[in-house]
Amino acid sequence: MAFGLLATADADLMEIIGLSLRVSLTALLISCLIGLPLGALVATCRFRGRSALLVLMNALMGLPPVVVGLIVYLYLSRSGPLGWMQLLYTPTAMIIAQTILITPIIAALSRQILEDMHEEYSEQFRSMNVPWRAEIAALLWDGRFSLMTVALAGFGRSIAEVGAVIIVGGNIDHLTRVMTTAIALETSKGDLPLALALGLVLLVIALAVNALAFVMRQAASKFAYG
Amino acid sequence: MPLQVDGLTLVIGGERLIDGISLTITEPGISVVMGFNGAGKSLFLRLLHGLVPQSAGSVHWAGKANSEDVRRRQAMVFQTPVLLRRSAAANIDFALKVQGLGSARRRDELLELVGLSGLADRPARLLSGGEQQRLALARALSCRPEVLFLDEPTANLDPASVALIEETLNGAAADGMKIIFVTHDVGQARRLGAEIVFLHHGKVEEQSPASAFFAKPASSVAQAYLEGRIVI
């Protein structure tokens, strides 16, 4: 039955998959926009408190999703500071929660990659008087293959995450139901075919993400761009 | 761009790696810096280029203390070329763009100058050692520097690359560029040098015109170096 749902492209199933991808990809995009420059900044700058920031960034990689969900819930709930925005139980709330979850992953992992590259390039860049912004842009561009692997790691974390999105999204049918929350619900209801079909899709996505990361590493190595 | 160095000193971990060097270089052409391993040649070059802050003393180029403005008129080629993870052409494009000189024609001229026209689209890091160093030289020349520093750029390169690099440097020097070149290779110093600066233990042991230096070095350490003797 699970394969049947997939083969017939069941409308509910497709809607859930579509929303999952939309939420996770949007969160990933925002996280990259914040996390990559932040990683580059920390990689290239020396300032007081940098070590503490590094520890914090690394620690935040292991943020418990339910705690993030709870905090975002408190902020977005009607009595919370951002309650007036009426975002609770919307895909936007889920995007916010996932962005908070994966931005530290993107920032911390990219910082390590970019710092190694910066160590290699810095003397040459100083000799060439490369302006700071151009330096950051060059590091981000030259590290693109490794950074895409970082982005894929972030995507893997967000697409498979359930704790935060169920708290701030509420798992509302046709509105905020994503693959992981649907699997949890359908399993508890005993509707295993839909849960299994969604589980299969998640596994395929995980496989595809890893395959893509592998291909990128190979390409980077082939062209000596890694 | 005359160079005036006064009491240049670099102390790291209590050790005087560069020990009060004072010298003047006013002649154009190629000045070759020589000396045994650990003499401080590479550090001296980095101090002159302003990549390493000195502990004491001063470096003045045409009367101006080392600064970003001064460095803008200089370029350096390192012993191990640091190339961007891009094509050969994109490496030159980057340097040109940073200096606001971006032009495809200039890039093509530079690649042709160092014999890399046919490899413009090849990833820079997949080029051979000699090709990489020639690319690094082309990139350094892209800003038309008044002073070019080279830190043993031909160490371990194939003879064809060495010949091409030397020919390029001779051409640049003939066009009025000041070149300060570190090498271990006595033969190369004879071929290129108009002037020799011989360092030993972080001090200038001798500074002479190349012809005089190779005919009869004034210092016994330089004499030993030329004779291939070990000096501790």
Structure, explained:
The complex is a heterodimer of chains A (226) and B (232). Chain A has helices at 2-7, 11-44, 50-60, 65-76, 91-127, 132-142, 144-159, 163-169, 179-189, 192-222. With 226 residues, chain A is mostly helical. Chain A has one domain (2-221): MetI-like fold, CATH 1.10.3720. The radius of gyration of chain B is 18 Å and the shape is globular. Chain B is an alpha/beta fold and 232 residues long. In chain B, a hairpin with a 2-residue loop joins β9 (195-200) and β10. Chain B has two domains: 27-52 and 65-73 and 145-232, P-loop containing nucleotide triphosphate hydrolases (Rossmann fold); 85-144. Chain B is built from nine helices and ten strands. Chain B has a six-stranded mixed beta sheet, with helices on both faces. Chains A and B meet through α5 and α6 of A and β6 and α3 of B.
Keywords:
heterodimer, A: 226 residues, mainly alpha, MetI-like fold, 78% helix, globular, B: 232 residues, alpha/beta, Rossmann fold, 2 domains, six-stranded mixed β-sheet, four-stranded antiparallel β-sheet
Helix/strand layout:
The complex is a heterodimer of chains A (226) and B (232).
Chain A: H1 2-7, H2 11-44, H3 50-60, H4 65-76, H5 91-127, H6 132-142, H7 144-159, H8 163-169, H9 179-189, H10 192-222
Chain B: E1 3-12, E2 15-25, E3 29-35, H1 41-49, E4 56-61, E5 64-65, H2 68-71, E6 74-77, H3 88-98, H4 104-113, H5 129-141, E7 147-151, H6 159-174, E8 178-182, H7 186-192, E9 195-200, E10 203-209, H8 210-215, H9 220-226
Parallel strand pairs in B: 3-8, 3-9, 6-7, 7-8
Antiparallel strand pairs in B: 1-2, 1-4, 4-5, 9-10
Helix pairs in contact in B: 3-4, 3-5, 5-6
